[in-house]
């Protein structure tokens, strides 16, 4: 038995939901970012799996999208972590529950 | 494709990802994040996209994980541990997982086996990047430059 596309999609869905769990239930701002990174990585895994199992695998479309997606995720991580450091300088905390000054 | 390798990598990756989402110590969670991304890179190798796997290792383990560890160290006076776990997030995540699994298992056209491994050399990827994907490549370069400048401006000390 070789792994089918469905198995890869199930693993990727599990990874996406673990990332969602981290983004929703963590209180620390850095780990919300890590959850978002993990969801992006699950999407990349889907791109590569669909490319590998498609009948036109000689065209590198899925690979290209995954490479660009990794680059965009890196840019997002850099800006996000800079935001965390900036917020920490102002409020001396990175706990997102205590950042409630804009709360109505 | 080897199913034994698939099962081992899947268990490894999901265990590390779950540790990232639940561990209380911030540094342990950040290091298990790196382990989870090694597992995802192993999936890319298994699927025959070696270049993407290498890029994943370089970018995530080499840059993003180090950046996250540095940020934790720079902000560690605040909390050493992440207290207070929001349990409603667990409910939402499990509900989304159930919906996704239902959609994947109900779709009939997804159960086909893989065709022969396509030969995807780095030379070919480079040629394609420089011919048909040259505009996206330039846009990503511009985006990375803008992100770099933006990150620098955000963390710059304000002069008073």
Shape of chain A: elongated
Percent of residues in beta strands of chain B:
under 5%
Q: Extract low-pLDDT stretches of chain B.
A: none
Instruction: Write down the overall mean pLDDT of chain B.
Output: 85
Order of helices and strands of chain A: HHH
Compute the number of helices of chain B. Answer: 6
Through-space gap between termini of chain A: 57 Å
Task: Provide a quick synopsis of the model.
With 104 residues, chain A is mainly α. Chain A is built from three helices and no strands.
Keywords, please?
heterodimer; A: 104 residues; mainly alpha; 0% strand; B: 160 residues; Four Helix Bundle (Hemerythrin (Met), subunit A); 6 helices; 73% helix
How does this model look, in words?
The complex is a heterodimer of chains A (104) and B (160). Chain A is an all-alpha fold and 104 residues long. Chain A has a domain of 64 residues. Chain A is 74% helix and 0% strand. In chain A, helix 1 runs antiparallel to helix 2 and helix 2 packs antiparallel against helix 3. The longest helix of chain A is centred in the C-terminal third of the chain and has 31 residues. The mean pLDDT of chain A is 87. Chain B has 160 residues and is mainly α. Chain B folds into 2 domains: 82 residues, NADH-ubiquinone/plastoquinone oxidoreductase chain 6, subunit NuoJ (Four Helix Bundle (Hemerythrin (Met), subunit A), Up-down Bundle), CATH 1.20.120.1200; 40 residues. In chain B, 73% of the residues lie in helices and 0% in strands. Chain B contains 6 helices and no strands. At the A-B interface, helix 1, helix 2 and helix 3 of A face helix 1, helix 2, helix 3, helix 4 and helix 5 of B.
